[in-house]
Design a protein that fits this description.
The protein is α/β, with parallel strands linked by helices. 44% of the residues lie in helices and 14% in strands. Helix 3 crosses helix 11 and helix 5 runs parallel beside helix 7.
Length: 324
Amino acid sequence: MSPYVDVGITTFEHIDIYGGFTASGCCFSCNLNYNDRTDKSTRYKFRIGRLFSVIKKQVNDIRFHKNRTMSTTNKTALITGATSGIGWATAQLFAKHKINLVLCGRRQERLTALKEELKQYTTVHTLNFDMRDKGAVFSAIESLPAAFADIDILINNAGNAHGLEPIQDGSIDDWDAMLDINVKGLLYVSKAVIPVMVVKKRGHIINIGSTAGKEVYPNGNVYCASKHAVDALNQGMRIDLNPYNIRVGAVNPGMVETEFSAVRFKGDEDRATKVYQGFAALQAEDVADIIHFVVTRPYHVNIADLVVMSTAQASSTIVNKRND
Ligand code: NDP
Ligand code: 8X3
């Protein structure tokens, strides 16, 4: 259809779009001269064509500035480590924004409870696998029903610290666990999900790193190494997936009050609780809010690398704790 519309001049003198945008302002910007009634019809057509393209652009600008977010309704997100902490809170928030969910973890009873709770908001599918088990990761993701297989958002969240010992006293089993889960498991899940995104030339991967991936602290050695690896993989994924229009970014929290320290200290709840005493630590919901903010930016905006700490924390080792 031709963009040129043959209308009388007075017809568009009173165009009013979204209250307040009038033809006079528009004509000013496209330099249409009302009084030049001697112009040939073709020149009017040309100018009216320009007028309509200016109107279209301004309407788009108004819409964009009114709501600078991207809708995630009916998108599908796969979240690893959804049975606890940051992953759990992200699943809750995503569900309330009608994002279809694929929720992963090892604790089946928690996955079942989550699905039961969240199905009032969105569709939920659960996958039970151990991130260390390469075969299990691939067969779980390959088993996704069609309604959940087209993943738009991948939250690489599952992971933990195991132990807090000087390097000479560290447990090899702990080292294996951290490198196998936090690094290799993240790679397996990414390898299984990325092809879908490459084909459609669209997708968003958020890697949950840590301040431990930005600086090393005493006794953090292998956990810090695993999170430095996540930092490197975040950059590497962003570079390699750049030709495919895929967004890749990391959210790197400081201390968050979750089951993280209970796992690190192997169930020693007293020691775990003390980590978060005397200051207002980040909560899992704070990080979930940030993850939701990241995924709802307009598609041309990619938050590549974000660090968040509680106000009381200045670095891995400097935390302003009350002495009471
Ligand atoms: P939680 O311990 O509360 O949650 C960890 C999640 O990871 C659980 O859902 C757990 O599920 C899953 N997970 C752990 N091991 C495996 C495995 N082998 N296979 C499958 N899933 C596994 O900790 P957070 O929520 O705090 O941690 C989430 C992420 O945030 C981690 O990557 C962590 O390193 C990072 N982080 C945490 C910080 C903190 O201070 N809490 C700060 C910075 C980053 P299940 O046990 O059911 O398998
Ligand atoms: C978790 C935060 O400071 O315990 O990644 O390493 S910290």
